[in-house]
Amino acid sequence: MKGHRRLPGVDLARALAIFGMVAVNFDQILSVPQSTGLSATLLALPAGRASALFVVLAGIGLSLLARRDVGRGRRVAFRRGLFFLVLGYLFWVVWPGDILHYYGWYFIVGGMALSWGNRVLALGVAVVTLTALALLMVFDYGAGWDFTRLEYEGLLTWTGQTRNLLFNGFHPLFPWLAFLFYGMWLGRRLVADPARVERMIWPALIVAVATEWASHSIISNLGGLEKNEAAYLFVTDSMPPSLFYVLAAGALATFTLALCLRVANRWESTWVVRALSHTGQLAFSLYVLHVLVGAYPLIAIQPTRSMAPAFVLGWCGGFCLLSIVGSHFWRLRFSQGPAETVLRRFAHSAPQSVVTKT
Q1: Is 8 exposed, middle or buried (0-12, 13-18, 19+ CB in 10 A)?
Q2: Contact, 219 vs 210, CB < 8 A?
Q3: Residues 250-282: pLDDT tens digits?
Q4: Which residues of 136-145 are buried (b: 16+ CB within 10 A; e: fewer)?
Q5: Which of 76, 128, 259, 358 could form a disulfide linkage to 178, CB 3.0–4.6 angstroms apart?
Q6: How far apart are alpha carbons 150 and 26 in whole angstroms?
C-alpha cells in the first residue's frame, strides 16, 4: 500500500455501519416496543452487527494509523481516545445509547496494544471473549437495567458506571475489545495484502451462517428449565453478548468488509461507490447529526417509542439517502467532515486544511 491513499472499500463498509447504527438507534428510541412485521424486522436486523463492524473498522484504522510509526500512532490514538471520552460523556447526557465514550476507551486500550504482535492480538481476542463469557456466567447481566424502557439506573455511581462500561452496557469493553483487537489484526493484513482480506468473503460468510445455525439448534434442543436458565449463553444477540454473538458478529463484519473491498475494487469510479465512500468518511459527523437532526425533532413532536415501525423505517431511509447526497457534495469541496475536522485538530499535531476546492 503506497502513501496515505484511503481504501474506498473500508470507507464503504463504514457507510454501511453508520446506516445500520442509524436504523438500530431510531428503532430503539422511536418505534413502539416489541413491534412485529417486516418494517420492525428490517430495523432490528443490524442490531449488534453495525456496532461490531464499527469497532472492527476502528481497529483497522488503528493499524493503518501506525503502519509507518507506532509511536506517533499511539500518541494520536491516545488523543483520539481522550477526545471521544470527553465528548462522549457530554453527549451521553442527551443520548443514553452513546457509543462515543466507549470509543474513547477503545482507542486508549488500542493505543497501548499497537506494539503487540499478531499472536498477542489473537490471544487478546480469545482472552477478552472468554472473560466476557465468565462475567456473564458469574454476575447478573440485568443489574441496573430496565429493559422495558431501555434505562439504566445508577449510571452516575462508580459501581453502576464500572459495571456498565465493563460488562453490561450497550457496548462494554468485554467483549467489544475483542472486535477492536481483531480489527487491528485484520488491518495489518489489509496493509500487507488487501486481496488476501478480500478472499475472506466466503469463509467469513460460512462462519457467520454456521454460528447462527448452531445457536438456533442448541437453543431449540434445550429443555424447559435449561432453556430458561442457559439459553442466554448461546444466543447471537448483542445483549447479552455470548461467545456465539462474538463469532457471528465478527464473521459478518469480516464478510461485509471483504464484500465492500471487492465492490470498491471493481466499481470505485462509479458515482454510487464514490458517494457511499464519502459517506463513510463523514461517519462521525453523521453519528452526531442522526441524533440532533434525525431523532430529536421527532422526539420533540411525539413521545419516544410511540411511532409505527413503517414510519421509522421510512424516516431512517430518508436520513440515510440525504446523508449520501450531502456527504458526497460536502466531500467534493472539503477534505473532511466538520466533526472529523475538530477531531483531527485535537488529535493530530499537524492538521491539514479541510478545503480542497474553491
Answers
A1: buried
A2: no
A3: 999 999 999 999 999 999 999 999 999 999 999
A4: beeeebeebb
A5: 128
A6: 13
